[in-house]
Amino acid sequence: MRGAPTILHLDMDAFYASAEQAAKPSLRGKPVVVGGIGPRGVVATASYEARVFGVRSAMATAQARRLCPNAAYLTPRFTLYRQISDVVMEQLARLSPLVEPLSLDEAFVDLEAGGVEPSAAAVRAVGERLRRDIRAATGLSGSVGLAGSKMLAKIASEQAKPDGLVLIEPGTERELLGPMPVRVVPGVGPATAETLRRAGITTVAETAEAGEAELVRLLGKAHGAGLYALATGHDDRPVVAERDAKSVSVEDTFEEDLTDRTRVQLEVARLADRCVQRLRAAGRSGRTVVVKVRRYDFSTLTRSETLRGPTDDPAVVREAAARLIETVETTAGVRLLGVGVSGLADYTQEDLFAQAASEQEGEDGARAAEEEPLEEAAAPRPRRWLPGLDVVHAEYGAGWVQGSGLGRVTVRFEQPWSEPGRVRTFAVDDPALAPGEPLPLVPPGTQVLPEASAPSAPSSPGGEDGAPFAGGAGRGSP
Ligand code: DCP
Ligand code: MG
């Protein structure tokens, strides 16, 4: 716990859905759900307009459709989200050498290591400016938490949502944390919360009052002692730049033990994808894939497999994780699953098979391969018009698929900086219609590209320090 709120946590608001609304003017202010759109699909996220109807991440898309039938249901466009993430992470890198990405849309930043004056006023100014810069560079909003520890910075950004900033003054944290549900403490999933609830513990204050010995009795030594420290505000976990980390992993505790084999495999595949997102957000790749399983009786085991070379290919990690989970007996019930990648390197060894596949893809594949060789090769684009995907029409220009079926596809022709556009319908095999690439979300010329040379010091020369991109973003849209 630091004496000044110099740990910043950034989390973009309704990230995938906001990116889609920024890209598709007709969807702004409307309910949007991004996720798997097939019968077994799961919601990745929902816009705040859709959340009003109870739609949430990880919910079955079928259930979301019942709750909010009028939302736009879109398939994710990971290439776009990664591009936006790169721009956001670049903004964070300007603040400090110590940036710890947790996913595409979320990271901790150690402002003290970035030389920011350790006062509430100074860090607040940095946080507000960051939010403005991210909006100017991406068109999206992010929420910022500032506090003296990671746990509190993350709680603060959650309180700041959407589109806000919350600073927790050191010294006030126990008072603030006390009445909160124990679930706010990192590492407390539904299962732990339930164990505590049965012992009459529901808030952070009650957790602290229970004392370390009681928590160890309830949860075991490591978990109990860790929880006691966090509940009493002792969180000295450092911000670790992922380039210094030795592994990247994600895990989930489940509300109810999983017994269904297919569900376990599905969750492992999703964790593998999330793990790769984090790996990529940090610009890393890794050689060893690890699967972690905690069973109904709390017995925990890990299985690992070392690949021939480092990878950041989601398909490769997914397949290795699937092989590993096959070797674990899970029928009696699983409380927690995790997927990690270790043996990290700063580069990716080109996947020869993937390369061969992209060469066979023809012109389209070759063009895409210049930018995204692994991604495009791993998922060669089928000629299926999934809702949300970009298309280009020879006559009408750029648009996106609104829906398809019965041999027809409807396309809305609009661009991120245009007025809401019109819908037209075509035959699915209309030769004038071709898959397109995501367009930049802010008008060309006003964009701040990740590779744009950024001053690494907090102050930049030329007196444009206060609002580095205001001149560009202020230019009228075409
Ligand atoms: N995501 C996902 N599956 C989940 C949770 C999230 O695919 N179970 C994806 C979609 C989200 C993105 O990760 O847009 C970021 O996750 P967040 O938890 O930060 O959620 P959002 O950014 O969507 O919303 P919030 O405003 O609550 O942060
Ligand atoms: Mg978010």
Give the SSE map.
Blueprint: E1 7-12, H1 15-23, E2 32-35, E3 43-46, H2 48-51, H3 61-67, E4 72-74, H4 78-93, E5 99-103, E6 106-110, H5 120-138, E7 142-147, H6 150-160, E8 165-167, H7 173-177, H8 190-198, H9 204-210, H10 212-219, H11 221-231, E9 247-258, H12 261-281, E10 285-295, E11 300-311, H13 314-326, E12 334-345, H14 352-359, H15 362-371, H16 373-378, E13 390-393, E14 397-405, E15 408-413, E16 422-427, E17 433-435, H17 470-474
Magnesium ion (MG) binds next to strand 1.
Write out key terms for the chains shown.
DNA-directed DNA polymerase; Alpha-Beta Plaits; 17 helices; alpha+beta; 478 residues; five-stranded mixed sheet; cytoplasm; DNA-directed DNA polymerase activity; DNA damage; binds magnesium ion; single chain; five-stranded antiparallel sheet; binds 2'-deoxycytidine-5'-triphosphate; DNA polymerase, domain 1
